[in-house]
Design goal:
The chain is an alpha/beta fold. The chain has 4 domains: 188 residues, no CATH class; 229 residues, 3-Layer(aba) Sandwich (Rossmann fold); 159 residues, Rossmann fold, CATH 3.40.50; 79 residues, no CATH class. It contains 29 helices and 21 strands. Helix 1 crosses helix 8, helix 10 runs antiparallel to helix 12 and helix 11 runs parallel beside helix 12.
């Protein structure tokens, strides 16, 4: 009898969950989630069929504990075969609702194999009898209109993208319904809601307080930028750019646009994606101060509890649960987390994607999108806007040329929010550029120039260059930032730098690019090694940031013995040299210059804007291949736990290491707790370090560094550094 079938063993109340209750619960949730992109009927069907194979006798025996089998029998193949007959892409979802999305060839082989297995054929027959009359069967005519496309390959990519979004709806629905049965207390924590209308009221009140009584040209510009964002927020959803210089108040103004636009057009949440964890933490703190902890989800690999171990607060627990599926009104995350999830195949990464539908998505520091992945990235973003109700905001001081044009399939119909960006840049000129790229500088000249001011920073292209300049400055009082320092160490150095700057005390910082985009520093003198133009302009944003001087100094130099990361970075440096090494260099405060630079760069890299051939893999429904190929951070790195304890948190790192050693394995919370203490090594360096007994595998997957770790230079080893671990 159907009423006696179960989906899960006993929960906390001692009662198993009935199969029909589970299928109906998942169908109800998946239908709601998929309705956000016009696919409710498909979400409903998947919810009913994903576990219908559990009606089989052997699965029921396993669930009731009547067998000694360590794993349950296959229960997804019955629904997979039903899906293959209804609409083939749905078979990916049912087949992978536990294991993830596979490649087309693997799914096809599994379908053919399972059609000939008597046990699966019988399970399918039982499932059909169970669901007869309970669920309508969708067909091709029910597909949303956006799946259609002008060319076969783009049609297949839209269909594959839709398949991934449906998978997200199904996986999240299944997880939530199962959680409700086994851990009902979590559902209570998840239920807390913060209304966007209340957040907007809070935001408006704080903004009025902030701007009351403020005067001066900088605050006048900030008011204009804020007013422009509010005025354009009423416009129809689509793609917007916000092109404003450092110090123009982009962080608050972009959020004002997003909240006002969301309320006006019925959007569900605001998602802010930034390239570096340092600025994510900085911006998340701003948003938490505005909206409260309960409204803001900070989701990235370095996010860790601010509470002492074992005393997790309700807001911390709510945030941890919301990170699983992005069910929060305001999400602050990394560009890596966002974009890699769009191309992922693992359920843990895909689960949140359905909550992108109907959102306002702010891509901050958008110029950092990697050129080798640009074509698939832009196509996915354009598709989110076209088909999933997303409004996209491209925010930066150095706007890349992402709009579509002849020969470049970019983003369609990009609208600039500011009526006159050039005027804003002109009024916020705060630096004088000294361009010295025709005659290379030795490190001795760089060091002398660095110490011409009591407060100065130099930004270099590689860690090797930073180490060379530290050697040259030996004996001088300097600070250093690069990825040879773990995240916790970098945060302490940044706090130290800010303290010296605020007290007008001498401070000299030697850094790689980790300090550039969005990090809130204000030096009177910034030196920048010749590199990609957008990186130079971002470094300049750390000079005279608050406009306290008539003009800060930005010195652009070509290091005589300097190195460059390969690929697009070297290509960008070459374009920049062409633009700057002239008798009449361009105006670096002109917002049209980055557009010119990026057009030249993308033109030079035209054949390398889909370096991994992702568009073809995507069109072929090869989900695993796409996920492996779409990586913003190279896979050839190994993180090691370094011996650093931040002030005020002694023993935290060691306590985690001791715990995982007792467990003989590390769980997800352990990895997150260790994240602030990690430095990533290229795989080849890691192999050499292991051979020299500089690091050991503490438990599988966790490596501990036993070599030197310096308070100034960070991780040290008697091996030649490669072009950089992770910049």
């Amino acid at each position: 009898m159907p009423d006696t079938l179960i989906a899960h063993s006993a929960g906390p109340d001692g009662t198993p969950q009935s199969l029909l209750d589970h299928l109906e619960g998942v169908a109800r949730r998946a239908r709601t989630f998929a309705a956000a992109f016009g696919s409710a009927v498909f979400g409903d069907w998947l919810g009913w069929w994903h576990d219908a194979g559990k009606a089989a006798d052997d699965v029921q025996a396993y669930l009731r504990g009547e067998t000694d089998a360590p794993r349950g029998p296959d229960h997804s193949s019955a629904g997979m075969l039903a899906a293959a007959d209804v609409l083939p892409p749905l078979a990916f979802n049912v087949a992978g609702h536990h294991g993830g999305l596979v490649d087309q060839k693997d799914l096809r082989e599994r379908v053919e194999r399972k059609r000939n297995e008597p046990r699966v054929v019988e399970a399918l027959a039982r499932a059909r009898r169970l669901l007869e009359g309970r669920v309508p069967t969708p067909g091709p005519d029910d597909l949303p209109a956006f799946v259609g496309a002008p060319t076969p390959s783009s049609h297949r990519r839209k269909l594959a993208f839709w398949t991934r979004m449906l998978h997200s709806a199904l996986v999240d629905a299944d997880c939530l319904d199962t959680e409700q049965h086994f851990q009902p207390e979590k559902a209570t924590v998840r239920a807390a809601r913060v209304d966007l209308t209340a957040l907007w009221s809070r935001f408006e009140a704080q903004q009025r307080t902030l701007m009351e009584g403020t005067t001066g040209p900088v605050n006048e510009v900030r008011r204009e930028v804020y007013a422009a964002c509010l005025a354009r927020a009423d416009e129809a959803p689509g793609i917007f750019s916000l092109t404003a210089p450092t110090g123009a108040g982009k962080t608050r103004s972009a959020m004002a646009f997003a909240l006002r636009h969301a309320l006006r057009h019925g959007k569900r949440r605001v998602i802010v994606a930034l390239p570096y964890t340092s600025i994510i933490e900085q911006n998340a703190d701003v948003y938490r101060a505005l909206f409260g902890d309960e409204a803001v989800l900070e989701h990235h690999s370095a996010a860790y509890s601010r509470e002492a171990p074992g005393t997790e607060s309700a807001s911390e627990r709510r945030a941890r649960l919301a990170a699983e599926n992005w069910d929060a009104p305001i999400i602050v995350t990394t560009t890596v987390q966002l974009l890699e999830s769009l191309f992922a195949n693992r359920n843990s990464r895909v689960r949140k994607l359905h909550n992108l539908a109907g959102s306002v998505l702010i891509l901050d520091e958008v110029q950092t999108l990697p050129p080798p992945l640009l074509r698939p990235t832009l196509e996915a973003l354009a598709h989110l806007v076209e088909a999933y109700g997303v409004t996209l905001v491209l925010s930066t001081a150095t706007q890349p040329a992402l709009a579509e044009r002849p020969g470049f399939p970019g983003l369609p119909d990009v609208r600039e929010i500011l009526p006159d960006p050039a005027s804003v840049f002109d009024r916020l000129r705060r630096v004088h550029y000294e361009i010295n790229v025709q005659t290379p500088w030795p490190w001795s000249r760089v060091a002398v120039t660095l110490f011409e001011e009591a407060q100065a920073m130099v930004v270099l292209n590689t860690i090797r260059d930073a180490m060379a300049l530290l050697d040259e400055a030996d004996g001088q009082d300097v600070l250093h930032l690069s990825t040879l320092l773990c995240g916790a160490h970098r945060r302490v150095v940044l706090a130290d730098v800010r303290q010296h700057l605020a007290r007008r005390e001498p401070v000299h910082l030697i850094s790689t690019q980790v300090v550039e985009a969005g990090v809130d520093l204000d030096f009177p003198l910034v030196l920048r090694a010749l590199g990609p133009l957008d990186r130079i302009l971002q470094a300049a944003g750390r000079c005279n940031r608050e406009g306290r001087l008539d003009a800060g100094r930005v010195v652009i130099f070509d290091p005589e013995q300097g190195g460059l990361p390969p690929g697009a970075y070297t290509a960008g440096t070459s374009v920049t040299r062409t633009l700057l090494a002239t008798d009449s260099p361009p105006d670096l405060d002109d917002p049209e210059l980055p557009l010119r630079y990026f057009r030249l760069l993308y033109g030079n890299l035209r054949e390398a804007l889909d370096e991994e051939n992702i568009l073809d893999k995507w069109a072929a429904f090869n989900f695993e291949q796409v996920a492996r190929a779409y990586r913003l951070i190279p896979d050839d790195t190994v993180p090691v736990v370094v011996p650093y304890d931040p002030p005020g948190r002694p023993g935290v790192r060691q306590a985690v290491l001791d715990r995982i050693q007792r467990q003989r394995q590390a769980f997800r919370p352990d990895y997150r707790a260790l994240q602030p203490f990690l430095v990533s090594l290229r795989a080849r360096l890691h192999e050499q370090a292991v051979a020299q007994h500089l690091c050991e595998e503490w438990v599988p997957g966790v490596w501990v560094w036993h070599g030197a770790y310096d308070d100034l230079r960070g991780l040290q080893m008697e091996l030649p550094l490669l072009d950089d671990p992770v910049i």
